[in-house]
Amino acid sequence: xxxxxxxxxxxxxxxxxxxxxxxxxxxxxxxxxxxxxxxxxxxxxxxxxxxxxxxxxxxxxxxxxxxxxxxxxxxxxxxxxxxxxxxxxxxxxxxxxxxxxxxxxxxxxxxxxxxxxxxxxxxxxxxxxxxxxxxxxxxxxxxxxxxxxxxxxxxxxxxxxxxxxxxxxxxxxxxxxxxxxxxxxxxxxxxxxxxxxxxxxxxxxxxxxxxxxxxxxxxxxxxxxxxxx
Length: 229
Ligand SMILES: NC(=O)c1ccc[n+]([C@@H]2O[C@H](COP(=O)([O-])OP(=O)(O)OC[C@H]3O[C@@H](n4cnc5c(N)ncnc54)[C@H](OP(=O)(O)O)[C@@H]3O)[C@@H](O)[C@H]2O)c1
Hints:
It is built from seven helices and ten strands. By secondary structure, the protein is of the alpha/beta class. The longest helix is centred in the middle third of the chain and has 16 residues, at about 120-135. NADP nicotinamide-adenine-dinucleotide phosphate (NAP) binds next to helix 1 and strand 5.
């Protein structure tokens, strides 16, 4: 059995990934804030929960020990480098050769080749400014976190989520290297399937050193793309 750690296990994405990993026979260690441990009660006895902030290096060191993979929900919350400190701790302490899968949004670009619509850029700019103003989040810190991941010599994948919605699984999302590709035009993914893509990436070596931008396989843009093949 393979062992994996979910950093940020109690969030919406984390809670989707736990049963997906259990179904696949993984042993799971989850990290979440002390106050959120109860959100994982449904999985009591089936996973190990390590309470603590994901920026706490000692917590991450303990949680990732002996893991074959680490799934990191990279959230830019607050204005104290939450995302970059979390990413750095994982990069520093994950066992050599472990698969590291990070979540983020389309706004992250790996090579500058993504083609964003003016509306998308305006929204990102406004959200970055407003979130920072009220000290809710710092999107630039998520950019910094991903810059560090891209520069690392680990076996990483950075999964870039589109807009998200709740609902039943529609299957494994499709992906492209670049936002702006017609296959991504619909810009919507079920959150449960975002989790599915992260989990599937653990066993997909073709995604090592890729930053797939994803969209649901049932969206009009994905279906139109499939029909052309
Ligand atoms: N939301 C979107 O529309 C969207 C779109 C594209 C991509 N994404 C990406 O998807 C991933 C998950 O996003 P999500 O919106 O679905 O969030 P989520 O899964 O609910 O995760 C939020 C995480 O942040 C933690 N958190 C919340 N408040 C916190 C605080 N004040 N201090 C420290 N940690 C805190 C949560 O832990 P607790 O359980 O302890 O609260 C949880 O682990 C992220 O990487 C995001 O960039 C999201």
